[in-house]
Amino acid sequence: MKQLCLIYKTLDQNGERWLLLVFYVMLVGTMFIEVIRREVFAYSSIWGEEIVRYSFIYLAWIGAASAVKERGHIRIDVILNYVSAKLKALLYIFGDIVMFIIALIAIYWSWEALHVSWKFGSVTHGLRISQTIFLFAVPFGFSLVILRLIQSFLRDLSDLRNSRPAYQGDRLFD
Q: Whose C-alpha in 106, 113, 123, 150 is 20 to 30 A from the C-alpha of 160?
């Protein structure tokens, strides 16, 4: 049981980082290979372009979840500097609830597209594999976002109840 808790804690802390690393290495490595092939051998492949495109899509959605976890997503927080700690926590909670609703809507509609692709057996042009693997990036990413929003919401409620300042995350620019 202790090992399961350790595995969960490790995944909770680093899961997005590892996934981002995998997709980033895949993107950069494939791009490097394709540039060499194009410039040295005057030949390029359609599969390389597809791998780069779909790796970037996965990077974007997993990165969104990572940003929610660290409160590193883009926001206008000037007003937060002028309100009380309690109101700041309430505004963060309100933002999490709004984003949660948007994420649920996005999952619903992306799941619909995934279902249609699965139903009709859509395949990618270059790789000729099921397009559902790549369309799954959106519901997967938003599911991670929802998980991180729930964690953020619970953290903010705990901070509010215990009169602690709300977690603000790291600022992108100071």
A: 106
pTM: 0.84
Q: Which residues fall within 8 angstroms of residue 34, CB to CB, at 6 or more apart? A: 44, 45, 48, 49, 52
Cα(55)–Cα(28) distance, rounded to whole angstroms? 9
Each residue's pLDDT tens digit, 107-164: 999 998 889 999 998 888 878 888 898 889 999 999 999 999 999 999 999 988 988 8
pLDDT for the residue numbered 171: 58
Question: pLDDT per residue over 43-75, tens digit each?
Answer: 888 888 889 999 999 999 999 998 888 887 777
DSSP 1: -
Q: Residue 77 contacts by C-beta under 8 Å, 6 or more apart in sequence?
A: 168
133, exposed or middle or buried, with CB in 10 Å at 0-12, 13-18, 19+?
middle
Helix ranges (DSSP H) in 42-126: 46-70, 85-120
- Burial grade of 173 (CB within 10 A; 0-12, 13-18, 19 or more): exposed
